[in-house]
Write a structure and sequence with these properties.
97 residues, alpha+beta, GMP Synthetase, Chain A, domain 3, elongated
């Protein structure tokens, strides 16, 4: 009996591994947090308590109400910076908590 192995590149094996749903979601959440950190000032990032995405909406919990207002005023600019960092239009709306 002859063994018939199909060889796969390491790249294709890693791509298949990363495409598993939990890993894709986890990696996406990390990318969103990194994009958020780049898009806002350090003081805003330091007061960010929670950040997650549902669909095309970015939900952010900020503990300082003054900084929350600052984000509201520059909301579209932040959305544009995050989408630019991600390389595609992922976020269409920001909801602050």
């Amino acid at each position: 009996m002859k063994r018939n192995y199909k060889s796969k590149s390491i790249k294709s094996i890693l791509e298949n591994f990363v495409e598993q749903e939990n890993l894709v979601d986890g990696i996406f959440n990390i990318k969103i947090k990194e994009a958020w950190e780049k898009a806002v000032e350090k003081k805003i990032f330091d007061y960010t308590k929670e950040i997650y995405v549902k669909g095309d909406v970015l939900f952010i919990k900020v503990s300082n109400p003054i900084l929350k207002q600052e984000i509201l005023y520059s909301r579209q600019k932040v959305i544009d910076l995050i989408n630019e960092d991600l390389g595609k239009e992922v976020i269409k709306k920001i909801v602050l908590k």
